[in-house]
Structure formats: structure tokens, C-alpha cells
Amino acid sequence: MAAITDEQVETVRGLVARIPSGSVATYGDIAEAAGLSSARTVGWIMRTDSSDLPWHRVISASGRPAAHLATRQLERLRAEGVLAVDGRVPLREYRHAF
């Protein structure tokens, strides 16, 4: 992976912070809006620098939450009105557009 700049980190953080309650975005959505070439870069940033952000609103392109956080993530989303079907968030209904 190419070096990630502070500017890229702040851009991703800003985008995640803008996802409203009751909505979700995919790692790819954020990468595209941030001008990054890979959703994996967003994943890396989220893993290392997102504890103060609404991290639970960022999901995979399949609509599934992170496996190791699935229960907690789906509980937080449900509290905001985002309802998963068989462990998957219906993106057509809840996806945030940047």
C-alpha cells in the first residue's frame, strides 16, 4: 500500500463524520469521495483512526458489517433505525450519497 498522507486521513475522517444517523456508506463510497484508489485504504484508516467517529455507519459493499464487530455494529445501526435483513444492510434503502 502506498503511503497514506495526513490529508487523506483527515478527508476520510471528515467524510465518515458526515454520514448521518440512520444511513450507511461503504468503504468504496468513501474511497471514491476521497479520491482514493482503494477501499482498503479507507479500511486501514478506519482501523487505526476512527474511535471517535460513527464507525458503525461504514460497511462493506455487500452490505455486511465487519465480521469481528458484526453484533455490535448491527446493534448500533438498529438503534439508529437501520434494519439489517439476514445480517445485511439493504444499501438501496440506507446508503448515504456524498
Stretches where pLDDT falls below 50 for ≥5 residues? Answer: none
The Rg value, from CA coordinates, equals: 13 Å
CATH superfamily: Winged helix-like DNA-binding domain superfamily/Winged helix DNA-binding domain
> How many beta strands in the DSSP annotation?
2
Oligomer: single chain
What's the CATH topology name?
Answer: Arc Repressor Mutant, subunit A
Number of domains: 1
Query: How many DSSP H or I helices?
Result: 5
Average pLDDT, rounded to a whole number, is 95
Strand pairing plus helix content: what structural class? mainly alpha
CATH top-level class = Mainly Alpha
Q: Could you say which overall geometry the principal axes of the C-alpha atoms support? A: globular
N-to-C series of helices and strands: HEHHEHH
User: How do the strands line up in the largest sheet?
Assistant: 1-2
Give the percentage of residues in beta strands: under 5%
Query: Which bin fits the share of residues in helices?
Result: 40-55%
How far is the N terminus from the C terminus? 25 Å
Topology, element by element:
Blueprint: H1 6-18, E1 25-26, H2 27-34, H3 39-48, E2 58-59, H4 70-79, H5 91-94
Parallel strand pairs: 1-2
In short:
This protein is mainly alpha-helical. Helices cover 46% and strands 4% of the residues.
Structural summary, described in words:
This protein has one domain (6-80): Arc Repressor Mutant, subunit A (Orthogonal Bundle). The protein has five helices and two strands, in the order αβααβαα. It has helices spanning 6-18, 27-34, 39-48, 70-79, 91-94; strands at residues 25-26, 58-59. Strands 1-2 form a two-stranded parallel sheet. The chain is globular and about 35 Å long. This is Methylated-DNA--protein-cysteine methyltransferase. One of its GO terms (molecular function) is methyltransferase activity. Keywords: DNA damage, Methyltransferase, Transferase.
